[in-house]
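User: Structure please.
Assistant: Input sequence and predicted structure:
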Amino acid sequence: MQYIQVTKQNLESEHICCAISNNKDVQVSSKKAWLAQRFDEGLVFLKSIERGKCFIEYIPAENAWNPIIADGYMYIDCLWVSGSFKGHGYSNDLLEECIKDSKSKGKKGLCILSSAKKKPFLADPKYLAHKGFEVCDESSNGIQLWFLAFDKNAEKPQFKPCAKDPHTDEKGYVLYYTSQCPFNAKYVPIVQQTAQQQGVQFRAIHITDKQTAQNAPTPITTYALFFDGEYLTNEQMNDKKFLKLLSR
């Protein structure tokens, strides 16, 4: 497999989304706009030449859009291998490149979000354990922070207090989300419209800056849905999924 790094110079011409073939789709344009602002903060987006079917996205943890304390670490936003590309060692390739690059930049190690059991859009904990990662912190809703230290004496990353017990003070459905995930540009408005049609109280909070993301009341900022203050899920909703959720 051949890989290419997406940069400011080739961002417009490169395919970057794992599931959307149209490079002009609103979801892709939203993600590219978000990426364009992150490159100067040290973000790296490495992908296969196979139109984004395999990629890794990582950034210095000080600039991560998550409420973590991990100075000197590299934070992995996403490690994705899709469909028929699984099982060929591509995840290993991408992770090894991340490790090599992070060591060359003097980082203490890597950190990434996962959970005790595999959850949608989170790293597989079995894979992380196989690669030597360990759990270094956990929130009350089961979201875990995993790390791989290059220096065994390095201080372990941790969640900020605001993310240890995810909750809100608002009634009804409250969604925190960012443009890091391209699907949000399409599906958040659809869920908002569905909630309005159903007469359901729903508020979407679009996190648009790093400071807000780093002080959010949830470890996962790409998509975190709450109901009456309690955390529900990080799985992106479409209209059918949301209606099913309401029927419960």
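Residues 101 and 110 are 11 Å apart (CA to CA).
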